[in-house]
Amino acid sequence: MGNQPKRILVTGGLGFIGSHTVVELQNDGYEVVIIDDLSNSKIEVLDGITAITNNKPEYHQIDLKNKQAVADFFANQKIDGVIHFAASKAVGESVEQPLKYYENNIATLVYVLQEMVKNKVNHFIFSSSCTVYGQADVLPITESAPTKPAESPYGNTKQIGEEIIAETTKVEELNAIALRYFNPIGAHESTEIGELPIGVPQNLIPFVTQTAAGIRETLSVFGDDYPTPDGTAVRDYIHVVDLAKAHIAALKRLLDKINVQKMEYFNVGTGKGSSVLDVIKAFEKSTGEKLNYKIVGRREGDITSAYANTTKANQVLGWKSALTLEDGLESAWKWQCKVKSQ
Ligand code: UD1
Fold first, then answer.
1. Preceding omega of 201 cis (within 30 degrees of 0)
2. What are the pLDDT tens digits along the chain (342 aa)?
């Protein structure tokens, strides 16, 4: 970095992964500007970030679907790079309301990229997902694994998003990195920020912690007849703080102009696969809580196994996950206890 701190726009900066990334950016000396429309986040997250870093980031409540508001924002700001989290992420909802997902996730991406190009902001990091691989033929999954037809409009927005960015980098000054997240879990150790699911959680870990907290009666384990060691599906659970740090590594790569392609892709996971029953056992062991669960049928659209080959991220980004599944579950539980007592 030069003498002037770099100013980074974080869209969706009050969301789960966004807020943890803002903390790491500030800890690393970056100046952060957050855009968030609060559609799936709370303004109090700003206080949580401030409590951890002693530094209140600049915040703008802007709906990125408002093209003019996006244009006005960029016209009035000096931004060195953008980390773009803002998107809707409920798979089931995306099946019910595909157009909402294409507008929220694709139209907004286009508006942000248009203003970046116009204002010569040339560094972009995109929240992608291991969902682009579908059920991969080879495990662990490398970045060169073929993408598979998306199972949902949500998944499709991640694939199309990557394509839109890649095509833009071919003809513009833009340089971009897509981070393909595996399954993010956990919370900041301070318990100032964490995941805030609205309504009944769809993802495993919030359902686990809410069940242990007595908010949900029973955790349903979706299927025990998968071709895996214990019959339950296998995923790569990555601690959100490790995931946040991957964004810093990717941003440095772009700002230092050491990327070798204009658009690059990295898996962000631990490299370790854990089954649903592994997660339940690890949760009970690391928290001492007993979990009420029952085996039910498979959930539609679920794949059998997905875990990352992280060699590229390790060697090229110089990033490696440091925290364990147990760390993630313990921090998620501490966060759940705090949220419940409020
Ligand atoms: C899901 C999305 C994925 C998205 C990711 C974001 C689907 C099909 N995929 O991934 O596109 O990028 O979230 O975080 O929704 N499970 C249970 N009981 C539960 C909840 C989950 O057994 O109550 C199981 C699932 O069957 C799966 C594992 O736990 O095997 C993880 O599920 P989840 O947290 O929803 O993540 P993914 O389905 O992997």
1. no
2. 457 899 999 999 999 999 999 999 999 999 999 999 999 999 999 999 999 999 999 999 999 999 999 999 999 999 999 999 999 999 999 999 999 999 999 999 999 999 999 999 999 999 999 999 999 999 999 999 999 999 999 999 999 999 999 999 999 999 999 999 999 999 999 999 999 998 999 999 999 999 999 999 999 999 999 999 999 999 999 999 999 999 999 999 999 999 999 999 999 999 999 999 999 999 999 999 999 999 999 999 999 999 999 999 999 999 999 999 999 999 999 999 999 877
Total of domains in the chain: 1
- pTM comes to 0.97
154 carries an active-site annotation: yes
Domain that holds residue 71: 7-185+238-269+310-321
Residue nearest to atom 35 of ligand 1 (CA): 203
Residue 242 domain-assigned? yes
Distances (CA, A) of 25 to 14, 61, 123, 229, 259: 13, 20, 15, 39, 20
Mutate which of 157, 300, 302 for ligand 1? The one with the most ligand atoms within 8 Å of its CB, which is 302
Q: Is residue 39 part of a domain?
A: yes
One-letter amino acid at 28 equals: D
